[in-house]
Fold this sequence. Notes:
The structure holds three protein chains of three kinds.
Chain A: H1 17-24, H2 30-33, E1 37-41, H3 45-57, E2 60-64, E3 82-83, H4 95-105, H5 112-131, E4 147-148, E5 155-158, H6 164-182, E6 185-188, E7 191-199, E8 202-210, E9 216-220, E10 223-226, H7 247-254, E11 259-260, E12 265-271, E13 294-298, E14 315-316, H8 318-322, H9 332-347, E15 356-359, H10 361-367, H11 369-387, E16 396-405, E17 408-409, E18 422-424, H12 442-463, H13 476-495, H14 501-515, H15 522-542, H16 554-578, H17 602-605, E19 607-612, E20 621-626
Parallel strand pairs in A: 1-2, 1-10, 2-6, 10-18
Antiparallel strand pairs in A: 3-5, 4-5, 7-8, 8-9, 11-17, 11-19, 12-16, 13-14, 13-15, 15-16, 19-20
Helix pairs in contact in A: 3-6, 3-12, 4-5, 5-12, 10-11, 14-15, 14-16, 15-16
Chain B: H1 5-8, H2 31-56, H3 63-74, H4 85-116, H5 139-142, H6 144-162, H7 177-185, H8 188-216, H9 226-251, H10 267-278
Chain C: E1 7-16, E2 25-34, H1 39-52, E3 75-76, E4 79-80, E5 102-106, E6 115-117, E7 120-121, H2 125-131, H3 153-163, H4 170-174, H5 181-192, H6 201-215, H7 224-228, H8 236-256
Parallel strand pairs in C: 1-5
Antiparallel strand pairs in C: 1-2, 3-4, 3-5, 6-7
Helix pairs in contact in C: 2-6, 3-5, 5-6, 5-8, 6-8
Amino acid sequence: MNPLINAKIPAGDIAEKWENHKFSMNLVNPSNKRKFEIIVVGTGLAGASAAATLGELGYRVKAFTFHDSPRRAHSIAAQGGINAAKNYTNDGDSVHRLFYDTVKGGDYRSREANVHRLAEVSVNIIDQATAQGVPFARDYGGLLDNRSFGGAQVSRTFYARGQTGQQLLIGAYSALMRQVAAGTVELHSRAELLDVVTKDGQACGIVTRDLVSGEVTPHSAHAVVLATGGYGNVYFLSTNAMMCNVTAAWRAHRKGALFANPCYTQIHPTCIPASDDFQSKLTLMSESLRNDGRIWVPETKADNRGAGDIPENERDYYLERKYPAFGNLVPRDVASRNAKTVVDAGHGVGPLANGVYLDFSGAIARDGLDAISAKYGNLFDMYQRITGENPYQTPMRIYPATHYTMGGLWVDYNLMTNVKGLYAIGEANFSDHGANRLGASALMQGLADGYFVLPYTIGDGLAGQLGSDPVPTTDPVFTQAIAGVNDTNRRWLATNGTKSVDHYHRELGRLVWDNIGMARNKAGLQQAVTDIPALKEEYHKNVRVLGSADTLNQSLEKAGRVADFFELAELMARDALQREESCGGHFRDEHQTPEGEAQRDDENFAHVAAWEWTGEGNTPTRHQEELTFDNVALSQRSYK
Amino acid sequence: MAQTPNQRYRVAPLRPRKKSWPFPMNIYQTAVGRKWVMALTGMGLIGFVLIHMIGNLHVYEGPARMHEYAETLRTLGGGLMPRGLVLWLMRLGLLGMFGLHLHSAITLKNMSGNSSEEATLIGGAKKYAGGRQHLAANYASRTMRWTGPIIALYLFYHLADLTWGWWLGDKFVSGDPYHNVTQSLSSLPVAILYIVANIALALHIFHGAWSMFQSLGINSPRYNHLRRGLAATLAGLILIGNLSFPLLTQTGLISEDNRECPINETTGLACLVEQAEGH
Amino acid sequence: MSNNAEIINVTIKVWRQDGPTSEGRFETHQQAISTHASFLEMLDLLNESLNDQGHEPIAFESDCREGICGTCGVMINGRAHGPQKATATCQLHMREFSDGDEIVIEPFRASGFPVIRDLAVDRSPLDRIIESGGYITVNTGAASDANLTPVPKEASDQAFDAAACIGCGACVAACPNSAGQLFTAAKIGHLNLLPQGQAERWKRTENMVETMEEFFGSCTNHGECSEACPKEISLDFIAFMNRDYLKAKVKNRALTGQK
């Protein structure tokens, strides 16, 4: 086995692995916990829940967010819900079914042991969140309500109107603030990680820049946890927040952490199509809309008639037609790719012919306007604010957009990267979703990692360090890192080119979307491998960043983030190029079934591709972690 | 490594919390508590204004009944209490409420001013240089800090005028309110002053009576929609009642033309008592 | 259909301030913009052209641009988050404006929200309020089954109405007194209405209100906050907080004795 990628999966029956592992791990006794310092970077669902829980356990935690408040992380924007195998609806759900659905939904490219653990702790998350005061939807008896979500045939999704993410994050944030008040967590807001510091192959701290004063500060600790989210903004246009970036993960990667499966990006099927070139981001409409909305396009190409003028028999309800069993509720990748197919074929609707209809007229006729407005009112209002169209009267126009990235830092079963003492949780790691994430599973994974997994597994890593102090911040490894950060900032300000950071980000996004988007092919990927470095070179020579490094300087912040996106994009292209199969969010035109479905190659690609940084300008090394499936039979996904 | 206050508090508190006073005085230490005091005293003062207005309607029954009403106030408590004691206790109570109302208003205004100081581009209350649009705040709510002082000044004038008789001089007859009122309000400038002051009072009550429910947390979905109406009714009644006095005096409806009793503190008052009894 | 994008020309009068202690000033710019663009995309474009001309771009904050994270927020023509009701700045679109309009943009102002730079202000006092009691004490793993305590749907729904607060600070900005009542009341209302929040109800209310008063002004019930609120949080929660605060003063004393 490759020593770099030992996943450390515990032995035993899949259902007992986690229990056994918890028992066999080293523990840190309560009075010793306060001797350990832990840095948690990011305060989204994963980061806030981890920092709070570690604080409760007695560790000395430093939490970092580059926002003004921990409550603003992009977890907050999740609308639909969170899965849990509670089986409150008595429709046959179980831990095993959630496990099975997630492995299958991930197109058999995730680790069975991790996914099973996720399904096990999912039930605890709901208990925890409810106790924190998260106002999940309830029925008239006062008990929790559930709804169904894409990729599942049971109702296991807990939700809080259209803002489940915000409510869960407020829960985790409030738990974090309780620890801040208690003094166990030291909160650093508006502090952006600019480097991960390692010594003798072990993570020993980070370097941050205060976004207000520009001060660059070292922080040392026994362990560093990255909970810094995904890299969807590499596409420039995505449903990610404006500030989401890959910088923390990428700097860790450059310090030796492997980056796994970067080509697994998820395109969310229900977003509002772009309306013009100046578009700054795309807005997601909750997937739950597919429960009641019917997706269709006109049968005639380039049909200019209004939606209402197209008679029923000239509409193509293509998902219902192709997938009678799941209909409009097929998994995200399937729904997205089908939308692309019909739009590429000329059936697109809207002024730029870049969308498909999501029609609620049937549901309104069936359930009444009030029922639909009670369920989706806030989403409809949001749609109307953005597009100026009334979705109660005309069908919504939707189109897929980048939404989530399954790839991320490679971690073992303990959520530790191959760099000792460096952990990655939530969307920042690659672990649980395989090649495609099911709806309402991101919140579940973030909170599972933060509340129930990392707090146990981190103790195992720390136990061996008892008695040793963190590396002092006066150590040369820190002073070098600080000098590096300052140098880079100075370089951006001195470049004095002609184009803004956003300009290059947009150009990069276009390149990535065209070549490493919803469907990829060899020629395009090869093109990307050469085009991206060329654009990157121009970026470094010709970007214009004004102002100084001693004040709030948003261009300077972005400059560094976009530079990392360039390097990541190149890696994505390489990864996609080498993965000669289609699976989940990675669809290669060359590898599809006669019906146009993703064609996996289990014989050659049932593995995780983990990339090692080999230095600036060098080709990265690809390592493989073989995946074994003992509990779920590999099969061609079918949602017909 | 402990966090320095600077790291924990990028923005330092404008008013760090002070040591707590003993209960229940600690309630008055905070703004929310102080708003309770303001609301409760406001409620008391509205009650006074309403009863005062209703009592004054006796003026329409002529000088004798007016005198009888005044006398009733002085002899409240009947034979149990010395004459005037209950009235004085009530006056002290009113004075206390007024003092608390005023003190809480001034201190809370300062607190808000201090919270907006750095926001202010032009001295005084919080302003936006680009102008600002009010959406919910109405004329009454925005002028509370003007109508309040107007009422306080007016109150002083009113007491000096009709209780202490400073301005009527020789014409002032202690214990004969009917005479004093007609004397005072028949002067046009005085009538105008009363009208202006009472409009200010009504505006103050219009916002105050509604605001009171908020401050006291009297809030029930079933009745909330009635709060505005109640405030408007109260303010309206008080406005109509109080404005009627100067207006009707000016038009001559309230006058001493038909008065039968002489105007002085001895025989005049005795005559009024007789008239009232014979009624 | 409103699909036909129209290009309008607007005059932007925007507040510029180099740092927390610097003197600020207004700057005027012209911008042509499609009515399909969002307000912040208009600022993005303006920034891009400023950058191209060698002027530092205007600092303003935004993140999710979906109206939920609460990062954005500026005063637009004297209204917090601009002219559209129940809409955060990031969700405001240029179709709300007409050709030739002058748009005045200022930061959210209050002493508790010092300006960092241009339109960016520091709203960390809101975190201090949460820190002082805006939570339910339950350690990870200590929770019982979620369905053990039924919560009446009405209570849950009302708590949700309060919990919808996105912490943007528009209430403070819109308030002529710079009061933080609506934010604090929303947070208190959310937790105090739920059965889970009862154990700490009185202590929470007392602490959060008193922390709020360390930073913000006093409420005079204008109602501007609720009008400015992108989530339309009701003034009723302020009344609820006021009531709970007095009760808290009495209850905390009864339970813990005189301090």
